[in-house]
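Hi everyone,

Forwarding the result from last night's run.
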Amino acid sequence: MSGYQYRGKQPHVFIPKQRELKPCGTEAAYKRHLFYREIPCDECVTAHREYLRKWRRANPDKRRRTLQPCGTLSAHARHKRRKEPIDDACQKARREYQRDLRARKKAAIR
């Protein structure tokens, strides 16, 4: 005989266990504020800043990406995003990209 035993129709409802919420002043509480679209309290903001400070010290290689130099499409997008004036080199890179894109589309249609 197998270990299976028919128990009739039973509801398949998942009831999560209630966990005790972390108090304000922790990273978990900060994330909870954001999840519920609340403005985080000062204690949670301070805890989040401390968490980020520790994370950045522990992961120095993941700090920031290096910015692409002017004269590239990425630099052109950066200028637009920051609402900076676009220099000639970036404008030229953008035009070149658009020209190549149109040529590739035209070639794909044929």
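The helical segments are 27-35, 42-58, 73-81, 88-109.

Cheers,
N.
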